[in-house]
Amino acid sequence: MATGITDRMANGGLIGSDNDPTTGVRVTTFTSSGTFTQSPTNAPQEVDYLIIAGGGGGGTGRGGGGGAGGYKTSFPGGTKIGSVPFDSVPITVGAGGAESNNGSNSVALGVTSTGGGQGGAFQTPGTAGGSGGGGGSDDHGGSGVVRPGGAASPAGQGNAGGNSYTQITAGGCGGGGGAGSAGSPGSSGNPRGGPGGNGLANSITGSSVTRGGGGGGGSDYRGGVPGGDGGPGGGADSGNVGSAPTQVGQANTGGGGSGDTWYHYPTPGQAGSGVVIIREPTGLFTASGVWPLDRQFALKKAGNWI
């Protein structure tokens, strides 16, 4: 359908009526680092994105759960990215943190999501990150000792980790923060370890998927009291929770690693890696009008000229 007359001579094209094509959607998912090339039928349209960093690793020796990787998205309803270079755009997908290590950043299209904060080790606060890690617990706490969870920093990518709490020898570590909610605090009860924070659901791929769960906080296992559950969205369960003790965060969700449950399950969990997803308009265009030559060449080269 003709929508008017446009002068395309500046790019060596023709003067004629523009087409008004119907576009579809192309979704590109990066589970590891690589390069992005736009569909020729998209450029220079704006794109949507979901960029999640690697989660933080769980803490050691009655350790807090790791925080989820930073979570940034434009979909749905956020600010899209325009003026994207046509091809060879570098994409970095952050790795999940090993035990007592922050996750790595994910970077794409000029947007950086910050790696999740590590869970606090024995007697250590949680570390700040995209979502903060939970606090590690103490041994002899007297009337009650609290170790704070890490903050979500920079703000706007996740939530804080939960505080630990120790009453005499009953130590419960904080759960790691998640993209959707903060990690829960530890307690002297049952379970002692705080659950990880919830992730967020997003349908940028066309199907709703929850990502960015915090890791479960560990505990002092004397008396058989377990650690906390991982948050929905890839967060790892702590020792004596779920199908295996001290599970790792789920790959490509940015899920936090679990804190260890001393002394029965002494190995904290590795966190899940991040992911980058780009959604762009695309489609097969029919040459029913007069097209600029540079546009025709790009479409023909890509096999989209009918």
Q: What is the straight-line distance between the termini?
A: 16 Å
User: What is the CA-atom radius of gyration, in angstroms?
Assistant: 24 Å
The number of distinct structural domains comes to 2
Mean pLDDT: 85
Instruction: Tell me the number of strands.
Output: 15
For the largest beta-sheet, the strand count, sense and barrel status come to: 4 strands, antiparallel
Spans of at least 5 consecutive residues with low confidence: 1-20
Structural class: mainly beta
Percentage of residues in strands: 15-25%
Order of helices and strands: EEEEEEEEEEEEEEEH
Please report the number of helical segments: 1
Shape: elongated
**Major β-sheet strand ordering:** 3-15-5-6
Give helix % range: under 10%
Summarize this structure briefly.
The chain is an all-beta fold and 306 residues long.
Description:
With about 300 residues, the chain is mostly beta strands. The chain folds into 2 domains: about 5-45 and about 280-300, no CATH class; about 50-275, no CATH class. Helix content is about 5%, strand content about 20%. The longest helix has 9 residues, at about 295-300. The relative contact order is 0.21.
What are the defining features of this structure?
19% strand; 306 residues; 1 helix; 3% helix
How do the strands and helices of this protein lay out in sequence?
Blueprint lengths: L4 E3 L7 E3 L6 E7 L3 E3 L11 E5 L18 E3 L15 E4 L13 E3 L2 E3 L31 E3 L16 E4 L2 E3 L27 E3 L6 E3 L63 E8 L10 H9 L5
Antiparallel strand pairs: 1-2, 3-15, 4-7, 5-6, 5-15, 7-8, 8-9, 10-11, 11-12, 13-14
